[in-house]
Amino acid sequence: MTIKYVVFYRSADDVLSRAQEHFAAHKARLDEFHARGDLLLVGTFGDPQTQGSMSIFRTRAAADEFVAGDPFVVNGLVKSHEVREWHEIYGA
């Protein structure tokens, strides 16, 4: 069993109208964390406005670091977030 850390984002009410403005900076941060091996998976749920998104990180420190500087969080596109420890049984 391997421990990973899942970050859930709850979208702000106006996320769809404001996401494009901050997407390039958000994507650059995603790319940085993925390139260094800390971000394993990321994506939105079917309706990002009402269901939000999630990402999976290798460590709790990486998850916390990502959230603290994420342009979507810093600029108010995320209403709230939660980091959960996740015990992976089967990995790819």
Automatic annotation (TrEMBL):
InterPro entries with a match to the protein in the record: Dimeric_a/b-barrel, Sec-metab_biosynth-assoc, YCII
Boundaries of every YCII-related domain copy: 4-86
Family stated for the protein in its record: Belongs to the YciI family.
Protein's name according to its UniProt entry: YCII-related domain-containing protein
Lineage of the species this protein comes from: Bacteria, Bacillati, Actinomycetota, Actinomycetes, Micromonosporales
